[in-house]
Specification:
96% helix, 108 residues, single chain
Amino acid sequence: MAQNQMTKTAEQSSADVQAELSKLKSDISSLSASLSDLAAKQTESLNSMARAKVEAVRRTGEETLTEAQKMAANAYKNAESSVKENPATGVAIAAGVGFLVGLFAGRR
């Protein structure tokens, strides 16, 4: 009778262990699915933030380019009017720049 009792207890313990393992597998599967969902949401969030940052940098670059183009156009107009007002100075500056370019090019 004690043997029979021990066999039933062992079978019940084995069934309990099997049930616990099955529950553990289910919990791990659920946890894995939750982690996958979280990773997908985080990836989507990070991609959205990166796109927003790229767009902001692009807009800033375009604004800077436009401003630089305006400044270059103004500098060209100022230089042109300065040369028209003082042609001798313009020729002297051009000669000086040519001399410096020749000096640096000759040292290579």
